Amino acid sequence: MSIEIKYMPLSFINTDEEILKQIKNTVLFSYLFQEFEETSLCHYLESTQYGYTASASEIGTHQLVRITDINSGKVDWNTVPFCDCEAETKYLLKDNDILVARTGGTTGKSFIVNSAPNNAIFASYLIRLRLKNEVNLQFINLYLNSYAFWSQIVEMKSGSAMPNVNAEKLKTLRIPKISCEEQSDFVTAFKNIEKAENLNSLFDKINEVESLFINSKKTINELTHQLDLIKQLRQAFLREAMQGKLLTSVTSSAVEKQATGHELLAKIKAEKAQLIAEKKLKKEKELAPITEDEIPFEIPEHWAWCRLGEICSKIGSGSTPKGSNYSEIGLPFFRSQNVHDSGLVYEDIKFVSNEVQKQMNGTIVLSNDILLNITGGSIGRCALVPSDFKEGNVSQHVCIIRPLSIDYIFLHKLVLSPYFQKLIFSSTTGAGREGLPKYNLEQFIIPLPPLHEQEQIVAKLEELMAFCDGLDQSIKESQGYNEMLLQQVLREALQSN
């Protein structure tokens, strides 16, 4: 056998049923490669043809089936668009034609035409394979849905910036050379393999490989479940932290002597008033008092409830430079894709010049700011700006939260807590692209412990999160070992006699 047959995960073959079908077909062709001489796919083909290049339209002389119209091995011809084609003889489809995707994420995926409309043609990103009259269609279909085929396709695609194959490459694919009569015999026997005496060894091999795959999937599912439990555990720790349940209990007399959240809130308000008096902050409309009905859960008596806007010197989103006027170097400009719970990500970072930044004065990011994504699919994702950060800017999809006189890490953890995230998702607006208005964010009610307890909570959370990190790492290593074992055993099984 001149090719190496490998099991490989494919993004468009993702159900267990479909993967097992591919494996089963591979066992057959591994056997056939051992028993028969090789030839190329061209041996079985009458012709190959690239599809017709045209734009899809609501009207036209012909229906134009595209890669995107083929879903789960079927085409809903009622939804296939139209085009005008003057060369229908060259592109017209007929039953038993095979269409193969020649580019994109589904390169190599095939579809057998059946009951197509009389005016159906195929688009340019597809290649039509038309078999010789005597060739058994199901035999070729088994091959096109096996890792004997996919191993060669993936090898052809390797090294390309854009995955693709062409008709000439397809013709060279290696395949067992089998007579038409034997093709039909193998197809028939394979459909009832448990009763096919000449394929007893294959039946046992298929059971062995299927059992291996199923057991491996069970392990993967269990490990995935464990990762989900760890995620829930992290959320539980954050939830308990914001309710004061991670603190060491102290006597009532000790509580009376220590600082309180109410005193801290009064101090912050006084500091804010001083900044306004010095014209370093603009005076804003006073936030409404918190009513009993608004309080979401119990907190220690010496803690205080406050609105987020009361403890911040700034809550506001950024803006995008006019004409997206970015620079090769300069000050970092953070967009939502750069803001992650674990910190700022500099991959695909943009920069703005000092001149451009002067036009965006209200969007300046400073050290220890908290950046919160307020629109789109990443809404709620939040990063704490490092303490050694100098200066940068943010886009309009990111909000700067700049607290006064509280532990920055504590507030970051609070924003990530289930309680705060629930507030975010219940306060978004906009049907097309959800967004969190500044006014809503300022109104959020949060618990405020005294400063020394904020520090205790942060220390305890970091200890607990490190424990979760260790569990995460252990489970992910087990996932990697399981995947490697599956790959190795399947590789050996698929290539053995």
Automatic annotation (TrEMBL):
CDD domains: RMtype1_S_EcoJA65PI-TRD1-CR1_like, RMtype1_S_Sau13435ORF2165P_TRD2-CR2_like. GO terms for molecular function: endonuclease activity; hydrolase activity. Its EC number is 3.1.21.-. It comes from the Bacteria. Residues 89-210, 300-476 form the Type I restriction modification DNA specificity domain. It is an enzyme of class 3 (hydrolase). Belongs to the type-I restriction system S methylase family. This is Restriction endonuclease subunit S.
